[in-house]
Amino acid sequence: MSNISTSNLLVELFVEELPPKALKKLGESFAQVLADSLRTQGLTGAEATVTPFATPRRLAVHITQVAAKAADRAVQQKLMPVSVALDASGQPTPALLKKLAAAGADASVVPQLKRAPDGKAEALFLDTVVPGVTLAQGLQKALDESLSRLPIPKVMTYQLADGWSDVKFVRPAHGLVALHGDALVPVSVLGLQAGRTTRGHRFEARSAEIQLRQADTYEQQLREEGAVIASFDQRRADIVRQLQAKADPLGLTPIDAPELLDEVCALVELPNVLACQFEAEFLAVPQECLILTMKANQKYFPLLDSHGKLTHHFLVVSNIHPADASAVVEGNERVVRPRLADAKFFFDQDRKRKLADRVDGLSKVVYHGKLGSQGERSERVRAIAHGIVNQLRMATLPYTVEAKDEFDVLDSKVKEASLLAKADLLTDMVGEFPELQGIMGGYYARHEGLRDGVAIAIEDHYKPRFAGDALPRNHTGTVVALADKLETLVGLFGIGQLPTGDKDPFALRRHALGVIRILVEKNLPLDLPALIEAAVPVFGDLIQNPTEALLGFFADRLAVSLRDQGFSAQEVDAVLALSPARLGDVPRRLEAVRSFAALPESASLAAANKRVGNILKKIEGTLPTEVKPELLQEAAEQALAAALATVGPQADQLFEQHDYAGSLKALAALKAPVDAFFDGVMVNADDAALRANRQALLKRLHDAMNRVADLSRLAAA
Fold first, then answer.
1. 365: helix, coil or strand?
2. pLDDT for 187-215, tens place per residue?
3. What's the confidence (pLDDT) of residue 3?
4. What DSSP character marks residue 472?
5. What gap in Å lies between CA 601 and CA 327, rounded to an integer?
6. Bridge partners for 192 per DSSP
7. Buried b (16+ CB within 10 A) or exposed e, 191-217
8. Predicted local distance difference test score (pLDDT) of residue 681
């Protein structure tokens, strides 16, 4: 592009109000696809700067260094083998003449055709020059492609001005601008011919129409004449600045809500943040309810105090700038009041009925067509949770009388929390705001005076709800959360409802990661296979046993999670190759593998371990396990046996103490005897007894080296 004269390009599609939740993606896609198409056609280069614009009523893009016409391209076209193209006297055959005609040439070009090897034969090639596309041609193609690939959530059909033609688009389009420098580019789309006229803010613009002088004045003219901040990112940043400026004098903080920011930014063209308030009496309602109704229904920004508590102040992002904003403030305060009153009414009504009284109603709520009702599900969660408590008991044996009492109390709390955990699904508040399930159950449980551990468990049993979310805060909540997620995973896997590709309607990946995080981060003495196996029987004959598939699913999720945490694929592979049942051990094993890999002896031992594994795999039948000292003839095998007798117990003791790094470090002492063994000993000796004894020695070495991880996975390929 350096030798071609260029100018900057501006394209704008003016439309009716676009769907706010989709605007950001629509703007980015419109700009990027259009720019990519121009680049592919040779009208702009990689050095061009692409600036997207998106407001509620427009999609636009500004692209620098766009050519009026793409450069011509030299193209070499293969015609046909020489043996087919020319006759015995070297004259063109009818087949060649026909091919040339199709390429826009005739017999006069035959002397200029090039001969070149093509496989085993020789072929004729035609050199031609393909004229570059004009900007009008290329932009038309780019526009058509950009609109066809927009991530439109829902297409609407509308009638054009002629009264006869229909077009389909996300919203009716009313204007098209295409300027190359100050020149108009003659393109059309959606029944619109490109011009240089656009419109500004509905209420704040200086004039109804804006005549754009050139591509580079677009943003400035829209701001000065149209009262529109065209850039989505700049508008969003301005909202953030104004929110903080209004909150600071009050000593408060706007709630952190990136998705709400994006949505509000897509609703205004010239944001104006205003401070409002509601009656403090509404703060008696749980703040989660008030925050949710203000965010979801009104698109308001609640304000929090320094302790994170909701206050009766909130911020509104208006799209107008009146000299006296009191009417706008009063209007928003009046509008929010009924919403908050509804929340208070739901809260008051729900507390008139105990959670326990709602449990029977869960039998009428369908959970899944093949897995029954929410009532049946609650009973399964309760049974699984009781089994988890028993597994925790067994993992801590022997224990004192006091410990037994603690487990009995835990079991009692777990049964109560499991029974009541889903009861809030039948409350008015959760019916209005499903996002509050669990949270409202916790509030209602505390209102009833239930044990605090039970109330917290009811609130926390959905945790973690998303990546980075907090884990359950107490033992009861931890057990119920595990049981709830295991019930979902075992049940749905058991009826074949597995995630496919990017589709996971039951959020099974999230549930699996939740189980993994709880087991790992709380370092629970629980084996994952045992947890799954214990959960299967509670479904009776409703499901097929999904243990194998589910363990593979967990392994995949765990591997992805560990790599995201910074462990290498090789380290993760080495640890997970052993399928460790206790996931709480996995991080320590990984750190141990990382420390081992840094030792100077690690590469040699990993290679030796891989060699040993390959030898053992080739042995047919049962592997020999007994090493007979009297059959250790060579000095090198005697030395290895002696080293194993010393190092093996040390490594095993450290392993049993969960000192995995120490266990692997102890193995470093085996490097010299292992190297000497492979240098001086023939494993597959002719004598069967000697061969079996040496194989048994290698089996003992292999077992000693692979308790923490499969060290062969660390060997170079």
1. coil
2. 999 999 999 999 999 999 998 899 999 99
3. 57
4. P
5. 78
6. 189
7. bbebebebbbbeebbeeeebebebbbb
8. 80
- C-alpha span between 317 and 274 (Å, rounded): 6
As a whole number, the mean pLDDT across the chain is 91
- Look-up: residue for tokens 């409703």? 542
The C-alpha atoms of residue 493 and residue 508 are separated, in whole angstroms, by: 9
The phi and psi torsions of 178 (rounded to 5 degrees) equal -145, 105
The Cα–Cα gap between 337 and 348 comes to: 16
559 is written with which tokens? 């591997």
User: Which secondary structure element, helix H or strand E, spans residue 246, and what is its range?
Assistant: helix 232-247
pLDDT at 275 over 80: yes
β strands within 6-109, DSSP E: 6-15, 50-55, 58-67, 73-81
Q: Which residues contact 703 (CB under 8 A, 6 or more apart)?
A: none
Contact call for residues 584 and 655 (beta carbons, < 8 A): no
Q: What is the pLDDT of residue 329?
A: 96
Cis peptide before 629 (omega within 30 of 0): no
What pLDDT does 401 receive?
Answer: 67
Q: What CA–CA distance (Å, rounded) separates 486 from 488? A: 5
Write down the residue that tokens 């979310």 correspond to: 469
In what helix (H) or strand (E) does residue 680 lie, and over which residues does it extend?
helix 671-680
pLDDT given for residue 717 in this prediction: 56
Q: Which residues pair with 76 in a beta bridge?
A: 127
- Taking the C-alpha atoms of residue 260 and residue 317, their distance in angstroms, rounded to an integer, is 11
**Phi, psi (5° rounding) for residue 227?**
55, 45
Instruction: State the Cα–Cα distance between residues 229 and 199, nearest whole angstrom.
Output: 13
d(CA 106, CA 100): 6
Residues 6+ apart with CB under 8 A from 128: 74, 75, 76, 77, 103, 104, 105
Cα gap 51→30, rounded to integer Å: 11
Calpha distance 140→597 (Å, rounded): 58
Handedness of CA 475, 480, 485, 486 (dihedral sign): positive
Query: What pLDDT shows up at residue 631?
Result: 82
Q: CB of 494 within 8 A of CB of 536?
A: yes
Residue 373 zone, left/alpha/beta (φ > 0; ψ -120 to 50; rest): beta
Q: Which amino acid is located at 59 in the chain? A: L
Please name the residues in contact with 416: beta carbons below 8 A apart, sequence gap of 6 or more.
450, 451, 454
Token pair recorded at residue 460:
């926390």
Integer angstrom CA distances of residue 585 from 554, 570, 588: 15, 18, 6
Rounded distance between C-alpha atoms, residue 176 and residue 139, angstroms: 13
Question: What's the pLDDT tens digit per position in 114-138?
Answer: 888 887 788 888 888 778 899 999 9
Answer whether 593's CB lies under 8 Å from 570's CB: no
For 654-659, what is the mean pLDDT?
A: 89
Q: Which helix (H) or strand (E) holds 386?
A: helix 374-395
Q: How many residues does the chain have?
A: 717
pLDDT of 716 strictly over 80: no
How confident is the model over 363-417, as pLDDT tens digits? 999 999 999 999 999 999 999 999 999 999 888 877 666 777 888 899 999 999 9
Strands (E), 151-246: 156-159, 166-169, 173-180, 183-184, 188-189, 192-193, 197-198, 210-211
Give the whole-angstrom CA distance, residue 256 versus residue 235.
17
- DSSP state at residue 295: I
Rounded percentage of the chain residues whose pLDDT exceeds 70: 99
pLDDT at 50: 97
Q: Which helix (H) or strand (E) holds 146?
A: helix 135-148
User: Contact 536/547 with Cβ under 8 angstroms?
Assistant: yes
Task: Return d(Cα 190, Cα 159) in angstroms, integer.
Answer: 10
Higher pLDDT, 396 or 262: 262
Q: Residue 608 forms beta bridges with which residues? A: none
Tell me how many degrees the CA angle 479-483-488 measures, rounded to the nearest 5. 155
Q: 317 in helix, strand or coil? A: strand
Candidate ranges 354-368, 619-633, 671-685; pick with highest mean pLDDT:
354-368
* Whole-model pTM over 0.90: no
